[in-house]
Amino acid sequence: MTGATQQPAKVLVLGANGQLARNTTRVLLEQSNARLTLYLRRASRLENPDPSRVRVVEGDVLDTAALRSAMQGQDLVYANLAGDMARQARSIIDAMHETGVKRLIFISSMGIYGEVPGEAYRSVLDPYRDSAAVIEASDLAYTILRPGWFDQTPAVDYQITHKGEPFGGHDISLNSLSDLILKLVTTPGLHMRESLGVSRG
Questions:
Q1: pTM for the whole thing?
Q2: What local confidence, expressed as pLDDT, does residue 4 receive?
């Protein structure tokens, strides 16, 4: 947990109803003093887990004006997206530029650089590949995470590989990935402008 005298990080969670986002929201509330804004297209699908620290905002990432409004005053953006991810990445970058927010944690997928030995993921990864390229070309303080397939294993057990290195495995627990996101949220400068593969250690 961050120190009691440290200003709590203000985190905007995009795609807040996704499986990983919901798990990470729980971990951030339990293990940090972060204040969260949960942003999703249909707010009625999500119950506010802690109204004293959490604000729920309904909006689409492609609605840059709404996104910009939700982003005001935030320290960090953490994005879990699907669909037209490159277009969404551009909308996030535009809103971050307009609001002065610099730090972005963006969830992608293993395989976008052909880094998984013996696997050649093709068009299914195009949205992840394209959005990562958009973010890497930006001037943001990003960290792109390329996890393996999610599972429900409770243990926190993971290894990190860097861009250009072979990916280390195929699976990763939600708790492991949420633990890494917690570290990124609470440790300024950690893995800045890096693309990290994350799999079971």
A1: 0.94
A2: 44
